[in-house]
Amino acid sequence: MSSAPHDIAITIRRAHAEDALCLGVLGTQVFLDTYAGSGIRAALAREVLRAFNTQEVEDLLQRTDTFVLVVERSGHLIGFAQVRLGAGETGVTGAHPAELERLYLQEAFTGKGLGTRLLAAAEQHAVESGADVLWLSYLVSNARAEKFYARHQYSRCGTLMFEMEGEQHENIVAQKPI
Question: Which of 6, 65, 75, 135 could form a disulfide with 175 if both were Cys (CB 3.0 to 4.6 A apart)?
Answer without folding.
Answer: 135
